Write the structure tokens for this entry.
Amino acid sequence: MNGDLSWAPISEPANVLDIGTGTGIWAIEFADKNPTSNVVGTDLSLIRAQDIPPNCEFFRADAEENWIFDYSFDYIHLRLMNTCFDDPKGMVKKIFDHLQPDGLIEYQEFCFEQIAADEASELAIQNNAQSHQATERRTNRSHLSRLNPWPLDPKDKQIDMYSQHNLTEATRSTCKFMKALGMTESEIDSFLDGVGSSIADTSVHSYTPWYVVYGRKPIEGRSANVK
């Protein structure tokens, strides 16, 4: 996102929630850049971040369970959560219920899809047994992220090393779906090792789409504005 933490049209939100905060880096950076905001990060694991600004705090909590907060939020952020929820629609409803009127939700997610950067890479992707057609969708904004550090520029290489790591780790979150299909642990491990090798193949120059979708909770009497 070219250094942006958010693409939603937020302006000095008083209370901010980062669901699935992970290491807490997004919440910490947002709090640093927005010192008047109260920023909260939650995750299933205990957050052990360092150098936490005074307007940022972390809680160990399951977002699908009863929320521990006695106040609503002006902005709720989620990133890389597409396989995390047992009830995605219920999760959206819970977020809506905990937003202030006129508050915003922003969801940032990549799609498991390869888009070739050149003709040779297109041929390699077509020959890959794991390739598939993406489904058409409507979003507010999108961005193409490289799968691995194939560019020559040193800065791009560093960014794309993180992209490769994130994407490879994200494939592990699909294990429950493969188990539901009857695959054994060894079959899943072998399959995901192959996927990881494909992602790391810098001879294939490709991108994956990164989608950013946001919506605003309507004020009573105003129609919804979901983008």
